[in-house]
Amino acid sequence: ETGVTQTPRHLVMGMTNKKSLKCEQHLGHNAMYWYKQSAKKPLELMFVYNFKEQTENNSVPSRFSPECPNSSHLFLHLHTLQPEDSALYLCASSPLQGGNEKLFFGSGTQLSVL
Amino acid sequence: QKEVEQNSGPLSVPEGAIASLNCTYSDRGSQSFFWYRQYSGKSPELIMFIYSNGDKEDGRFTAQLNKASQYVSLLIRDSQPSDSATYLCAVNDPQGAQKLVFGQGTRLTINP
Fold this sequence. Notes:
Chain A is globular, with a radius of gyration of 13 Å. Chain A has about 110 residues and is mainly β. Chain B is mainly beta and about 110 residues long. Helix content of chain B is about 0%, strand content about 55%. The chains are: A mainly beta (about 110), B mainly beta (about 110).
């Protein structure tokens, strides 16, 4: 396994379901991110974790709950989502120093909320 | 509200020509600027970054930055069909060291 791996690639869920997205990075980075990419809207930062500590929450609704047990793994727990939450959710990682130049994205999870 | 503006396109360019992609940003405090390429159904991939006014060249790609005008551009020389993708402009948010603000992206099509 190399790079940033996300599972599942596709997810369909009802508004009452609870599901989790998983991300794993094999790059030795110590910062991990969740981004949201909605149709016809810019890519938007959701959360940042440095050394498994959350350092940024970009006013994300509480129905999105991130978890970072270590520097290599990141989860996004989903519950009682709305149809407007349907989007591509991208995980990314970077080193802490010069991180913006070395931000690597995973392939994303395409989420559909019915 | 920090904003990065791009023409969503589609921008259609003949093969072998120069493709010119433009981006403006609202926060004068931004200091670093990035261009990502995103193929349909794939994740964004960094292709260029620039910090100083002027031009930066890497192969067929040239990034241009004008901080006074708050303007960033990407030129692709000798465009190839494989360059057909959406190009995302991103700038750093001065309020957060790891925050990038992205534009909506410009869809580029290279016609053989």
